[in-house]
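USER: Please consider what follows.
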Amino acid sequence: MIVLDEPTTDLDPEGREEVFALIRRLREQGLSLIVIEHEAEELRQSDRILLLRQGSVIAEGTPASVMTRLELLEECGVHPPGLNRVLAMLDIGGHAESIDDAEAAIRKRFPSTPPREQRNEATSGKTPAPSTASPLLEVRKLSFGYSPASQVLADFDLAIAPGEFVAIIGQNGSGKTTLAKSIVGLLKPESGRILLGGRDAAALAAAETAREAAYVFQNPDHQIFAATVEEEVKFGPRNFGFDDAEVERRCAEVLAAVGLEGERESDPFLLRKGERQRLAVASVLALRPRLLILDEPTTGLDYREQRRMMKLVSELNQAGVAIVIITHTPWLVAEYARRVVLMRAGRKIFDGAVRDFFTHDEMLQNASFRPPEVTALSRRFGGVALTPAEFASWFRTPVE
């Protein structure tokens, strides 16, 4: 017997598929396998699912019997399968084992494909207009390598306007984290320029850089260090010379924003993973940056904490903070980002609107990036839906 505890955490979609292909081979060889996961879609091929809450098994059975209990899955911090959610929204119900199954069930219920104008109406107003504002961030011909034989970024260009919400994606090793660390000054580029608010980042003091751009590490334990939550948040403003009253004002403000007001005296390392992640965000928000870069902000979090983190990030964006998320999670890209930058081998191979990104089937396949299953399903009906609700809205009235 082999027990695998979230075996695909931090892996890109290709790596995730390789792991589950290995699991299937081990199963064929007769080994017993226990896989612990938050993503229900990964476990459709399992023989049996046990759903746990507070130390007790509250549901047990085949994938078809457990994965249709959508509300219960959410209550237990499990991401319900998007295909099953669509079937429920269309009053079809049941369990879809694949995109083919979901398509067949929908076409049986709705024999005619929704007209183009109906699909367009459901998605109108969701493609961002090009920004006319001066860039908040400009990356010009940036190159970086960790050794002479290891070139990670090569002549990389990027511009981000105030208030944008950008997802940077790509396979492991494509240069995403290296780019982020270069932007905030944790790495020094070999060549090229980075401009923050029109000023050369190389000439900015640390405090000036921190007010323009902040970076939240993939693992919050690599970032937090203080003895209490309060001290963690106050460190930055104190270090940059703010008076006590301003430090306290900023501390109270950001702790309220991330929902940690009652944890001021807590040891940061005794908080849950999601709370530590929110604390890491709070510690950089205290400097009020105009650009916030989050590296895999939902890694290791259950579905409830993922939604809570992304709600916080969305609220910051609505308040005017430009957001960049580095992620391997397709549904996060579809539901939250408005622009996608796809990287491969240190270069940019796509930069554009999210909905347009998911129409490039060959590029997605070559980049080993899979769209959310609901988005892939929607393509078979002639459009690009980014969420289950958006797809279900195409079928407002059953066709008799």
